[in-house]
Amino acid sequence: MTIRNILVRGTFADSNRNDPSSLNVDITDGTASFMREELALFVPARFSKPVATGIGVVGILLLFGFALFVAKRGTDPRAFAVNEVEVSGTLDYTDRDVLRERVIGHTETGFYTLDLDAVRADIKRLPWVAEAYLRRIPPDRLSIEVIEHEPAAKWNDDALISKRFELFKPPQLMPDSIQRAEWLVHFSTFPQLRGADGRHESVLAAYRRYQAELSGFDTQLETLIEDERFSQTLILGNQVSVRLGSTDHDTRMARFVDVYPAMVSELKGRAVKFDMRYRNGFAVTEPGSPRALSGIEAAARSTRGVDGAQTTAPVENANPNLNTDN
Predict the structure, then answer these.
(1) Are residues 270 and 253 in contact, defined by beta-carbon separation less than 8 angstroms?
(2) On the chain, which terminus has fewer CB atoms closer than 10 Å, C or N?
(3) What per-residue string of b and e applies to 184-218 under the rule 16 or more CB within 10 Å gives b?
(4) What angle, rounded to 10 degrees, do the helices at 249-267 and 200-213 form?
């Protein structure tokens, strides 16, 4: 017979309470009964369900209390402060003092509660900052890598375009900046691009194409102007201007590149204007002169293809409004 439960109910005299021989044991249906006066003791093989539940609740409360303690300590900037800020990257134009103030304003919350996304967004609001990367280095260091815009060209009067086609307005070029004159000189070697709002990417891309086509000539493309009708005018470093109009920009530029080398000697350094808007030719004039330059006509007409066919020629006394596609 297997004994599943043991119920102890013993009756003891004071003189032999600890004497095992005085115990009266009755085993019935797997139960051993020990009679004891006014006393019942249970000796289970494991904790009962209420006791186990109570222990579990106490454990959960202890863990919850510990988590609250850690969370409170983690948000205490005195216990987990940001003691070191490491800034890397080349800062040629960004004001370091302004950058430092932006970061310090966030570190007061503590090391573990520091909002890295908010710090990054605040740093990127600085005009010269293109990107910022942040990471925590325990126990108390914040690492910041700053990448500045690399200017590729000036845009209108107060902005720059980066090499990644991003438009930004540095404080140095603002009209009320005391540094404006100094910085205009600093950026004087950058090409000047002009156009309508939102056109900076297209104009910079066009500038790069045209400059590549002029790479074999002893001059540079200094200015590219596009008006509200997308009509483009180029100004070269030798003050030669090229008007491409509002359509067929690449075709007209290729035509100019074809005829320009044969005409350089005849220009003799004069600031002439090429109007490439004509369907079958172009016009070359000097500022203030309504007529094509006769000395240049012969040079232009001598530009022929391999088969002897004339490729293009200047148009004399032509009215651009009647003979061009704009």
Answers:
(1) no
(2) N
(3) eeeeeeebbbbbeeebbeebbebbeebeeebeebe
(4) 50
Antiparallel, parallel or unpaired: β 221-226 and 232-236: antiparallel
**Residue 53: inside a domain, yes or no?**
no
CB 182 within 8 A of CB 171: no
Assigned domain for 153 exists: no
User: 304 and 200 in one domain?
Assistant: yes
Count of beta carbons in the 10 Å neighbourhood of residue 272:
22
| Domain annotation covers residue 260 | yes
CB atoms within 10 A of CB 248: 16
How many domains, in total, are found in the chain? 3
The 10s digit of each residue's pLDDT in 172-217 is: 899 898 989 998 999 999 999 999 999 999 999 999 999 999 998 8
The answer to the question of residue 110 being in a domain is yes
Structure tokens at 251: 């075709």
Q: pLDDT of 147-183, one tens digit each?
A: 999 999 999 999 999 999 999 999 889 989 898 999 8
Domain that holds residue 105: 84-148
The answer to whether residues 25 and 116 belong to one domain is no
User: Could you tell me the pTM of the whole model?
Assistant: 0.67
